Amino acid sequence: MTQAYIGTSILALFISVVLIRSLSLKKMGIQAVEFGKKDKKDLIIPPFALFYFYLILAHTFNWPTIPAQLLFYSELLAWTGVVLCLSGLLFFIWTMISFKKSFRVGLVENTAQGLITSGAFAISRNPIYVSFAVLLIGQFCIYPSWIFLIYLAAGIATFHRQVIREEAFLKQQYGSDFQAYCEKVRRYI
Questions:
Q1: pLDDT tens across 56-109, in order?
Q2: Is residue 39 helix, strand or coil?
């Protein structure tokens, strides 16, 4: 199934963009990954993410996986999923460009560049999570199974939890500037 190969490739590109951006910031002396340092509960996410990546690869390359997952299949829905995955990737890349040197994984005090409100952040206060959600929806359309539906629901709930935490953090860090930004730009889209 061509859509599966494309969807898997897009997921690999998402991961590559994060790794490349984190490494390029590290070369500039910026520690971009602070994941789990402020909230140890965040450390339960990586094993679930790794299992998700395995499931995507297993479905694409016919590796051993949990049997009887597929709920239904539609060629049109699978191609719609590819379009969603690609859209999510492009929005994610735009977000990385918009972040400039401010990209961080985790809650990190970072006032050097100020509050980012341009680029992708001019249409969404949380474009990175919007792009992740679009990717998950696209992956579900390509692989419409009960386990990916659970991952989709859990992922969106986890993103929302993180958004609430980050927005409280930004409100504390930037005060009235962040409040004014919230009044102009929606939380998601």
A1: 999 999 999 988 889 999 999 999 999 999 999 999 999 999 988 877 666 666
A2: coil
Number of residues assigned to the chain: 189
For residues 19 and 33, is the Cβ–Cβ distance under 8 A?
no
pLDDT digits (tens, 9 = 90+) for 51-62: 999 999 999 999
pTM score above 0.70: yes
Quote the tokens at residue 62.
């016919």
Q: Is the pLDDT of residue 34 over 90?
A: no
Task: Kindly report each contact of residues 45-49 with a partner whose C-beta sits within 8 Å and lies 24 or more positions away, as own/partner.
Answer: 45/158, 48/151, 48/154
The CA distance from 22 to 36, in Å, is 16
* CB-CB contact of 159 with 72 (8 Å): no
Alpha helices in 28-145 (DSSP H): 45-61, 75-99, 127-142
CA nearest neighbour of 140 among 188, 89, 87, 72: 72
Q: How far apart are CA 55 and CA 125, in angstroms?
A: 30
User: Token pair 């992922």 is at which residue?
Assistant: 155
- Domain covering 2-184 in this structure, CATH number: 1.20.120.1630
- CA neighbor of 104 nearest in space, from 188, 14, 22: 22
